[in-house]
Sequence to fold (223 residues):
Amino acid sequence: SIGTLTFSIFSFSFLKKLEIPCQVILDSTNYFQWVAYMEDLLRSKGLFRIATDQEKKPKDEDKAAKWENRQDQARGLIGMSISPDLRFHIAELDTPNEAMKQLTNFFGIKNEIRSHQLEKELLTLGPNNFSSIEDFLSKFKTLRLLLEGVKVKKEDSNLIYSILTKLGPAYSVFVSTFHSTREAFISQGIDYHHQHIYFWCYNHLKKKTWLCFWPCDKKLQNQ
Fold:
């Protein structure tokens, strides 16, 4: 019947509104990724200004009621975007602005400490502490990804030279060839940061784990 159809459509619409829209859930390690996503989510809902206390409560009663509802909506979105075991951090806070400040004060600082720990581990990482060069490079790649998670970007060139300086005598021929090839590219006016150096690395490095730092194009690999 028309009544049943209308009720079904209404129910579906209501349930859609109840769906949790958050695709990035805050845990103890991803604050910077989460806060960037949360800002975009709030903006997409037209709630960013009210969540950051830029939009003050209006004096008109009707407008004030709508403002309070939007405050609740923003606060709800923030709460639903946090891992359940961490929600106690903002359990007593009613406004979205208070909740965001609390999370920034706790997880922002915690992530900065974490980034320093990861950078120190990356600097002290050496192949002699691993059973194989593959394990060393795999750990290097993991630390790089973890640093990106706390908003610390490491340039490929810096990582490449860091690896080269850590390699032992067994790789002296490779290191020497790498530098001489780089110099040859420069003398020919070739940008060694682009595909030429990637292609060279692909041909000379037999182990695929090296390629995590030089993202060779598949077309180059097939040449």
